[in-house]
Amino acid sequence: MKTQANSEHLILTMTEPVPIILTIKEDADYHQGNYARLDILLRSLDHFASSHEFDEILLVTPDRELPNLRSHLARSPTVAAKRIECVSDSAIVPGIESHPAAPWYKQQVLKLAAHRRWPGRFYMTMDADIFATQRFSMSQFIVDGRSLLDTETREHQWRWFAASAAILDMDAAAVPAAVMTVTPCIYHASVVAAVLDEIERLHPGPWDQHLLARCFDIEWTEHAIYFLGAIKLGLLDKFHFLGPAPQAWRLHSLNAVYMAEVWPGWDTPACFSGWTGVFTCIASSARIPVADIEAKIAGYIP
Q: 9 pLDDT exceeds 50?
């Protein structure tokens, strides 16, 4: 690893790009418009990411949507789109299409299952309603073999961590005050594999089937399972450090919109020009029309 000077920051350059896994669904409810949201993400990567970042972007979509997604990406002018491999959900987890679990849980299982593609490597999870707002390199977030985990207070989404602790047979009192926050997340494939092995040790049978079955009674999340599993197995400090990063970088922007009532006050100039973090989210569940998002970011993302 070597260093190079930047006019504003010191950037560590890494030799191994970080792959991205993104699950996407277009054809139902608030997922409608996700292809247009994806276009914003891809343009933002072209504009803000250091060259040669994200040489591998894996898009996973329901089997029936795969032809439409491939057709849409074939028309994309972005460099990022040329790095994309599109696969169906069932190519990552056979049989998941027919499971009655909600799509939100299926997508989380797929993000965990993707670790098998990149053994021994870090990979980043992503959603279509996220986009970059600042120039960045992934070496800002992976330093000396450990990656940043941005944090929030456990009370913010306590139910997720309490449920995930139950799956891992952990006392909820063991959940630390500062916990890992939501997508985008940087996972290490070795940690994911170890945590999933622990789930199968505790609950005989395939880990994915157990997680999908449990979603009907408790609200687990993949990032909470990853974080708590890494703590239980003594792997957290080996592979991660908790935010902020040594250079005060954040993966997550502090300017994000998860609820519609926040949208009118979204501070667009601060999001793109103030240092609040690299990736923001205008949540699809907030149902903000993509045309309105495009109007606000015009001039910031070509």
A: no
pLDDT band at 274 (very low <50, low <70, confident <90, very high): low
Specify the residue for token string 């277009």: 26
Inter-axis angle of helices 189-202 and 207-214, nearest 10: 70
Query: Apex CA 223: angle with CA 48 and CA 122, to 5°?
Result: 55
SS3 per residue for the chain? CEEEECCCCEEEECCCCCCEEEECCCCCHHHCCHHHHHHHHHHHHHHHECCCCCCCEEEEECHHHHHHHHHHHHCCCCHHHHCEEEEEHHHHCCCHHHCCCCHHHHHHHHHHHHHHHCCCCEEEEECCCEEECCCECHHHCEECCEEEECEEEHHHHHHHHHHHHHHCCCCHHHCCCEEECCCCEEEEHHHHHHHHHHHHHHCCCCHHHHHHHHCCCCCCCHHHHHHHHHHHCCCHHHHEEECCCCCCCCCECCCCECCHHHHHHCCHHHHHHCCCCCEEEECHHHCCCHHHHHHHHCCCCC
Buried b (16+ CB within 10 A) or exposed e, 71-107: ebbeebebebbebbebbbbeebbeebeebebeeebbb
- Can you say how many angstroms the Cα of residue 194 is from the centroid of all Cα atoms in its chain? 19
Arithmetic mean of pLDDT over the chain: 91
Closest by CA to 34, choosing from 74, 72, 82, is 72
- With cut-offs at 50, 70 and 90, classify the pLDDT of residue 249: confident
Q: Report the percent of the chain where pLDDT is more than 70.
A: 91
Instruction: Specify the pTM.
Output: 0.92
- The domains of the chain, with CATH numbers, are 2-297 (3.90.550)
